[in-house]
C-alpha cells in the first residue's frame, strides 16, 4: 500500500468524546489510574506538562490529584477546543493553560520550562517521529522529575502483526465516513466478538465496564485505534534502553495492553 500523507483527525474524536462523555466520574477514574501507576497518594505541588492532551480529561485528573499547575498542548486545534471545553466545565481554573503546539517543533518546545511531571499518554507514537518526540518530551523533565508515557507496544501485536494494523490505519484514515463506519463494525465483529454472535452480550457488558479504562469510551478508542495515523509501534525494551541513554531510570512499567505504560525518573 502506498504511504498516505493524511493525518487522523484526533481532535474531532476527542471533541465528540468530551461533549458526549465528560463527567466527574471519568475524571476520578483517570485520577485513580495516574496515582496508582505512580504509587502515590497525591501529586501535591508538582508542575504538570500534558503533551498531546486530547480531551483534557487527564489534565483535569492531575489537577484534582493536587498538581500546582497544568500546561497542556496538542498538535490538533480541535483537541484544544475539546480541552478548553473540559476546562470550562471544571470552572476554568487559572492554573491550567491549554495551547496548540507540536512536540516535534523545537522552537515551541525550547520556549517551555521544565516540569516535575511530564505526561504523554498515547501520543509520541502518533507524531511521525517517535524517537525525536521521546527525546524532546524527556528534555522537559526537571532533574529529579518524572516522565510518564504510554506507547503502542510492538511486543503485544503478534497476531495480527504490527504491519497489518498499519495498513488498516492507512485505509481507515483515507476512507469516507460510510466506509469508516463499516470498518468499525468489522473491527467489533472480528476482534471484539471473534466472529461469534453469541459473544454479543459479553461485548455489551465490556462496553459498559470499559469506562474503568482511564475513564475512556470504547467507541472513541476504537476510532482512535483504527484511524490513529501516523503511527509507529515500539518494542518495550527499545523504549527503556533509549530512555536510559538519555538519563532516565525506569521506576514502573505496565505491559500486556495495546499501550505499555512507563514511568521514568530523571537523575538529580
Ligand atoms: C491517542 S490521542 C491521546 C490523547 C490523550 N493523551 C489521552 O490519553 O487521552 C493522541 C493525541 O496526540 C496528539 N498529537 C499527535 N501528534 C502530536 C504532536 N506532534 N504534538 C503534540 N500532540 C500531538 C493528537 O492530536 C491527539 O490528541
Describe this structure in words.
By secondary structure, the protein is α/β, with parallel strands linked by helices. The protein folds into two domains: 10-154 and 233-266, Rossmann fold (3-Layer(aba) Sandwich), CATH 3.40.50; 162-227, no CATH class. It has eleven helices and seven strands. It has helices at residues 10-21, 24-37, 57-64, 77-89, 106-110, 130-138, 162-173, 177-192, 200-209, 218-227, 236-245; strands at residues 47-51, 69-74, 96-100, 115-121, 141-152, 248-254, 259-266. Helix 6 (130-138) links the parallel strand 4 and strand 5. Helix 1 runs parallel beside helix 4. S-adenosylmethionine is lined by residues 10-11, 14, 51-55, 58, 74-76, 79, 102-104, 121-123, 126-127, 224, 228.
Distinctive features:
268 residues; alpha/beta; Rossmann fold; 2 domains; seven-stranded mixed sheet; 11 helices; 7 strands; 44% helix; 19% strand; globular; binds S-adenosylmethionine
Summarize it:
This protein has eleven helices and seven strands. With about 270 residues, it is α/β, with parallel strands linked by helices.
Which strand order spans the largest sheet, edge to edge or round the barrel? Answer: 3-2-1-4-5-7-6
Helix content: 40-55%
The number of distinct β-strands equals 7
Briefly note the CATH topology name of the largest domain.
Rossmann fold
Would you spell out the secondary-structure blueprint of this structure?
Layout: H1 10-21, H2 24-37, E1 47-51, H3 57-64, E2 69-74, H4 77-89, E3 96-100, H5 106-110, E4 115-121, H6 130-138, E5 141-152, H7 162-173, H8 177-192, H9 200-209, H10 218-227, H11 236-245, E6 248-254, E7 259-266
Parallel strand pairs: 1-2, 1-4, 2-3, 4-5
Antiparallel strand pairs: 5-7, 6-7
The structure holds S-adenosylmethionine (SAM).
Amino acid at each position: 500500500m502506498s504511504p498516505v500523507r493524511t493525518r487522523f483527525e484526533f481532535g474531532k474524536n476527542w471533541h465528540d468524546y468530551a461533549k458526549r462523555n465528560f463527567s466527574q466520574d471519568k475524571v476520578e477514574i483517570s485520577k485513580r489510574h495516574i496515582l496508582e501507576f505512580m504509587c502515590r497518594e497525591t501529586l501535591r505541588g508538582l508542575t504538570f506538562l500534558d503533551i498531546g492532551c486530547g480531551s483534557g480529561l487527564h489534565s483535569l485528573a492531575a489537577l484534582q490529584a493536587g498538581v500546582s499547575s497544568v500546561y497542556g498542548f496538542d498538535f490538533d486545534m480541535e483537541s484544544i477546543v475539546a480541552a478548553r471545553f473540559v476546562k470550562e466545565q471544571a470552572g476554568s481554573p487559572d492554573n491550567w493553560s491549554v495551547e496548540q503546539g507540536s512536540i516535534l517543533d523545537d522552537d515551541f518546545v525550547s520556549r517551555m520550562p521544565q516540569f516535575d511531571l511530564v505526561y504523554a499518554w498515547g501520543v509520541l507514537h502518533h507524531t511521525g517521529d517517535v524517537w525525536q518526540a521521546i527525546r524532546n518530551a524527556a528534555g522537559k523533565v526537571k532533574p529529579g522529575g518524572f516522565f510518564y508515557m504510554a506507547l503502542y507496544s510492538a511486543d503485544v501485536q503478534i497476531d495480527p502483526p504490527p504491519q497489518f494494523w498499519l495498513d488498516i490505519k492507512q485505509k481507515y484514515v483515507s476512507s469516507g465516513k460510510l466506509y469508516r463506519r463499516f470498518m468499525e463494525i468489522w473491527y467489533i465483529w472480528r476482534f471484539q466478538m471473534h466472529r461469534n454472535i453469541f459473544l454479543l452480550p459479553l461485548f455489551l457488558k465490556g462496553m459498559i465496564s470499559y469506562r474503568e479504562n482511564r475513564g475512556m469510551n470504547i467507541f472513541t478508542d476504537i476510532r482512535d485505534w483504527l484511524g490513529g495515523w501516523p503511527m509507529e509501534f515500539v518494542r518495550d525494551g527499545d523504549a527503556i534502553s533509549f530512555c536510559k541513554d538519555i538519563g532516565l531510570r525506569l521506576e514502573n512499567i505496565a505491559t500486556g495492553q495495546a499501550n505499555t505504560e512507563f514511568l521514568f525518573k530523571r537523575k538529580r
